[in-house]
């Protein structure tokens, strides 16, 4: 008779609620940043090429983090690296948008540290990095 041991007694995590919410938020940002950047680029790229290109970079980053979170199993090294890149992007673009506002005549996803998105672009990688630091690195996919 093959009896499965409950996950709790083997040390495996079963509660993935917060992880699913995190993936959903990243997926929403991937879609919204992609839509925003494509509309900006297709509508009037010449008006703010730096700003619109950086919005597209933000979109690609959100897509990469979403895919990495979905497929990471219990190993988070690539996801951590992507979140650090995302955080660096928010900080650099946010600072540039304040120091060199002439490069940002229109809003961007990461401009002014994500002010157009309620500062979520600044908080999201911090939350993800905190979550990843708190999760275990166990299991066959780790």
In short:
The protein is mainly alpha-helical and 142 residues long.
Helices and strands in order:
Elements: H1 7-10, H2 17-44, H3 49-71, H4 77-99, H5 120-134
Oligomer: single chain
Q: How much is the radius of gyration in Å?
A: 18 Å
The average pLDDT value, as a whole number, equals 86
Could you spell the SSE succession in H and E letters?
HHHHH
Number of separate domains: 1
Give your account of this protein's structure.
The chain is an all-alpha fold. The protein has one domain. Helix 2 packs antiparallel against helix 3 and helix 4 runs antiparallel to helix 5. The longest helix is centred in the N-terminal third of the chain and has 28 residues. The C terminus is likely disordered.
List descriptors.
142 residues; 5 helices; elongated
């Amino acid at each position: 008779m093959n009896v499965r041991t409950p996950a709790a007694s083997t040390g495996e995590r079963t509660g993935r609620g917060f992880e699913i919410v995190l993936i959903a938020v990243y997926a929403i940002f991937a879609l919204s940043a992609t839509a925003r950047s494509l509309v900006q680029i297709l509508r009037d790229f010449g008006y703010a090429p730096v700003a619109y290109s950086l919005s597209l970079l933000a979109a690609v980053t959100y897509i990469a983090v979403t895919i990495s979170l979905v497929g990471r199993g219990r190993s988070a090294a690539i996801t951590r690296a992507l979140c650090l890149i995302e955080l660096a992007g928010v900080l650099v673009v946010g600072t540039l948008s304040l120091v060199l506002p002439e490069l940002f005549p229109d809003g961007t996803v990461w401009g002014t540290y994500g002010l157009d998105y309620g500062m979520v672009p600044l908080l999201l990688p911090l939350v993800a990095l905190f979550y990843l630091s708190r999760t275990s690195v166990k299991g066959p996919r780790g």
